[in-house]
Write a structure and sequence with these properties.
12 helices; mainly alpha; 305 residues; globular
Length: 305
C-alpha cells in the first residue's frame, strides 16, 4: 500500500452533516473516557506498580482483540511496511507515551505537572504539521491554541506544586511528550485504513513488547487483587485502551491533525474536574476560570468558520 498524500484529505473538508453520528460525537466520548483515565489510573496504582499495571492492561487488550480477531477474521496488513507503520504508532503511543509517563510519576513528577507538560503537544503538532503533513495553521488557530494552553496551565498551577522537578522524572515526561506527538503526526501522514481489531492487535503487541522489559527490570510485579483494582483495570482496558484510543485514531484520520490535537488541551482541566467529583480533589476559583478559558481556546482552534 502506498503512503497517503501529504496534502489534506478530501474528507477534511467533508460537511459535518455527511459524517456518521459516532464521528461527530467522538470528541465528547474521547475527552471523558481519556480524562477519566487519570482518576481511574490513580485508583489502580494503589494496588499495582506502574509498569505491571500497563503489562496487565495491554495483555487484557490483546486477549480481547485475539478473541475478536478469531471471530471476525479481519484482513491483515499485506506488506511488511504496513505492519511496521501500525507497530510503530502502537509503540509510540503505548510504550513511549504511557510507559514514560508512568516512569515520570515514580521519579517524582506529580500528575498535574505531567499533564501540563503533555498539554504542550498541540503546540508541537501545530509547529511541525505544516512541513510534515501539508496542513496550514491559521492565525485564529494559533490564537486558540495559545488561549487553551494558558487555560490549562491555570488549572494545573492552581492545584499542583510545580516548583521542584526531579531531572530524571522531567526527562521521562518530555520523552513521553515526544511519544504522543510522534504518534499523532505519524498516524496522520502514514495512517492505514485497516480494521480496528487489526490495528489494536498489532499496536498493543508493540506496546506490550516495549513495557514488559521495564516491568521485569524495575518491578516485582506484585498486585493486590481487589474489586476496586479489577474495576479500574476493566475501565483502563475497555474505556481507555479500546474505545478512547480507537476514537482518537479515527479522529486523526478524519480531520486535520492540528485540530484533533487541540482537543487534548481539554484533557488536563477535565481530568481535574473528574478528580474533584470522583476523588474529592477540590478545584479553586482559578481552576474553574482556567477550565472555561481552555474550553474557549479549543473552540476557537477547532471551529469551522
Amino acid at each position: 500500500m502506498s503512503h497517503q498524500s501529504t496534502q489534506p484529505k478530501k474528507n477534511d473538508q467533508e460537511p459535518l452533516k455527511s459524517r456518521p453520528w459516532w464521528l461527530i460525537a467522538a470528541p465528547i466520548f474521547f475527552l471523558f473516557l481519556w480524562a477519566g483515565g487519570y482518576s481511574v489510573a490513580k485508583v489502580g496504582l494503589q494496588y499495582s506498580p506502574p509498569m505491571t499495571l500497563l503489562v496487565l492492561r495491554y495483555s487484557c487488550v490483546l486477549a480481547l482483540m485475539a478473541v475478536l480477531f478469531a471471530i471476525i477474521r479481519p484482513e491483515l496488513p499485506k506488506t511488511l511496511k504496513d505492519w511496521l507503520h501500525l507497530a510503530f504508532v502502537g509503540w509510540l503511543m503505548q510504550a513511549m507515551y504511557f510507559g514514560l509517563c508512568y516512569l515520570a510519576f515514580i521519579n517524582g513528577i506529580a500528575a498535574g505537572t505531567a499533564a501540563l507538560i503533555m498539554a504542550l503537544q498541540p503546540i508541537l503538532v501545530a509547529l511541525i504539521a505544516p512541513r510534515w503533513s501539508g496542513e496550514q495553521i491559521s492565525q485564529r488557530q494559533w490564537g486558540g491554541l495559545i488561549i487553551a494552553l494558558v487555560g490549562t496551565a491555570l488549572v494545573i498551577i492552581s492545584r499542583y506544586d510545580i516548583g521542584s522537578l526531579p531531572v530524571a522524572g522531567l526527562a521521562c515526561a518530555f520523552a513521553s511528550l515526544i511519544g504522543i506527538t510522534g504518534a499523532t503526526l505519524w498516524e496522520k501522514r502514514f495512517g492505514l485504513s485497516h480494521h480496528p481489531i487489526t490495528t489494536n492487535l498489532i499496536g498493543y503487541a508493540a506496546g506490550l513488547a516495549g513495557v514488559l522489559p521495564l516491568m521485569l527490570w524495575l518491578e516485582t510485579a506484585e498486585v493486590q487483587w481487589t474489586w476496586s483494582f479489577a474495576a479500574a483495570l476493566a475501565y483502563l482496558v475497555i474505556g481507555n485502551s479500546v474505545i478512547a484510543v480507537g476514537l482518537l485514531l479515527a479522529m486523526i484520520r478524519a480531520g486535520e491533525v492540528s485540530k484533533v490535537s487541540a482537543l487534548l488541551f481539554l484533557v488536563p482541566p477535565l481530568a481535574a474536574l473528574i478528580a474533584w467529583i470522583v476523588l474529592g480533589e477540590i478545584m479553586s476559583s482559578l481552576a474553574w476560570a482556567g477550565l472555561a478559558l481552555a474550553g474557549a481556546g479549543v473552540f476557537l482552534a477547532t471551529r469551522k468558520w
